[in-house]
Structures are given as C-alpha cells and as structure tokens.
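Quick one: structure tokens for this chain, please?
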Amino acid sequence: MIIITTHKGADFDALASLVAATLLYPGAKPVLPTSINANLKAFLSIHKDLFDFYSPKDIILEHVKKLVVVDTHSWNRLERMEKLKTRKDLEIIIWDHHSEGDIETDHKNISETGAAVTLLVKEIEKKRKLITPIQATLFLMGLYEDTGNLTFPSTLAEDAYAAGFLLDRKADLHILSTFLQHAYGKKQKDILFQMVRKAKRTEASGFSISISKMEISGRVQNLAMVLQMYREIVNVDAAFGIFRDVERNICMVIGRSKVDEINVGLIMRSVGGGGHPGAGSALLKAANPDTIEEMLVELISGNQYSSIMLSDIMSYPVVTVLEDTKVEEVAMILRNMGCTGMPIVDKDDHIVGVVSRRDFKKMRQSKHMLLPIKAFMSRNVITIQHDKSAIEAARLMIKNDIGRIPVMKDDKIIGIITRSDAMMYFYDLLPD
C-alpha cells in the first residue's frame, strides 16, 4: 500500500499538495488528517464528493510499503503515523518547502518556495499530467494562501510561474475569493485594538520585537492575520502573540518576522511547533504565558543560532590551489587534509572554481590525473559574505546542493563553511 499524507491542522496548501501528489503517485491513498482549518472545512463541505480521502484511522500501518509526505517532514506533525517511524523497510518520499524536519530519507524534494504545492505543480507540468479545472483551482488556492496572493516575502519566481500555469489550466479566481476570505469581525478587531493599546517594543540581537499576551475565550479564527496586522502597525522586525484560551487552558503562540535573522519557524520548533522562516505557530497546553515570553526572548537574543555570524563558525585559513595545479596533486592535498573539496584560485588569488568529490567522478581515465584541475572544477561558484548568518549559508547549501561555501570579504576568501560545520553547530543548539 502507498499512502500520501500531510500535517495536522491542514490548510489549503496541505490539501492542494495532497491532491497533487495523487496525480504523481497513481493508486496511492490520500490520507487527510482529522484536524483541518476553518477555510478548508468550508471548502470541503461543498466539494468533498470530488475527492476520495481516507482518515488516518482507516489505514492499517502494517500494510504500508511507501509513505509520501507533503507540506511537512516532521513526524510529530503527522496524525497516527508514529508506528511508521521505526520501520526500516519503509520507503519515504518528501515534498516540502520547510527547511526544518526530522523525517530521514534519501528521497527528499525540498525547496523553500512560497508554497509546497508549487513543487508538485512543477513536477506535474514536467510529466505532462492532465489536471481538471477544479484541481487547478484547488492548487492555486493552496499557492495563494501560503504566499498571500504572491505578496509575501517568501514568494519566489517559481510560485508566480506555477500560478500562471494553473490559470492557464482554467483555475477559477471567483472560487478562490469565496473560500480564501479572511474573517475579520468584531472579535478580531477587539483583540487587535487591545494588542495595539498595550503594545511594547524592545530590542533583541539588534532587532526590534514586540511580544503581546492576550486572554481569549473559546476559539477565535484568523489570529495569524490579526498578528500580521499588529506587526505592521507596531512596525517591528518580528512580533509574537501569546493567546491564552482560558476555557481550554491552552496557549496559541504565533510569530511573524520580516527579517531572515529571526527565523520564526525555528523558534516555534524549539517550543514544539513549526512553520516558515517568516511565520510559525505552536500550541502549548497548560503553559504560563509569562514563561513562554521568557523563552521567546531567550531564543531570539541568546540561543537562536541564526543570530550567529559566519565569522564566528567558519574555518580559516583556507587552503586553496591554483587552477593550473595537476589533478593528482589536488587529490593528494585533499587526501592529506581529510576533506572532500576546496576552492580553486587564479594567480591573483581570485576564486575561479571549486572542486569536490563529485567532480573527481568525472575522471574516467588515468591520464586525466595529469590534467590541470581547472578542466574538472565547477565554475559556478556560490559564495557568501562574512557578515551573513549561518542559516543563510545553510539555505544556499540546500538550494544549490553543495557541501561547502567560501566566505568572502572585499572580494577575498577569508574562510569556508561546510555542510557538516553548519549542521553540527545547529544541532548542538537545537537538539531533538
């Protein structure tokens, strides 16, 4: 059995990705979590007969041979899938636009696009799969919801291209406007008014932040929208809302950031939630709002690794070789150093390429070892400035599938950061 599933509290991007994946994996069973957001519930109340979803409780996990996970790759965000975590014979495929997750597999399709469905739509177009107008509409709803109609800073060119593709496939914008309406009524207005009235600004790691604590009674929809409006009105780099539901004794923590250095998704992961670099949330039971506030401040100002600069963790001095150095000499240097790659420079010490283990695989004949390394080096060199953060280096590694990045200052190499450097550092600060 092949199953496709997504995260609890599913939104339109999750549903769209789930349905899109069924086109790429014919015969797979789409498993929709029982907890879904209000907009999605309204949509499915009318369109449910168009989709053949399974509930997590309908699945006999022992029969599952392949698991496809969309819009997340964290085990704790999946519903009733715990038993699969220890299965060694299980094939897992990931389609996600979040950088954080703990599901390990060799089959990862991860890219930080504005929406997860963008990745699947790209694959659907590549494989020339036919999609119906209602499918195109659903996919566009997921894309628009997660990109704020292509206005959020996380939106990439790939998202806009996917939107154009879906509109060409007859996606209905009228249906989008009906179901993507954000309720902003008296409750939301009153909460926003109280938040702004009590607003406090503070500085943390050189950035302006505001943390608002509010008591609410019962479920209040679209608190994320309220917090986004709050951040814009207070005009801070990042804002966090701690909403304590006195009836259920739970705290909904929501964060929004407009700067890369404050990665809300990672902060929320640290308190048991998740999200994107610019947006995230967590649900905490029987938690003290004051304690949560202290945790957030500590994560931002002290323990959030994205505030650390590359100059703090990079390796230096950097060993380089001239572009005319013979391949066999470079191989010997790498072997003696115990590393898998290094930068290549010209006679003026300007970086012109990078050589890695994969470049050596291009060498088929022994005579290749006598050629200059410039014949095999990668010329598309990805570099990063010394004053950037560790998280930015990690993003570049993931996006470009590279294991090392030269660190530059004034057009000179002053250090190098490798994938293992970054990951060891991150996991020391954020243990599972």
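Confidence is low (pLDDT under 50) at residues 303-307, 427-432.
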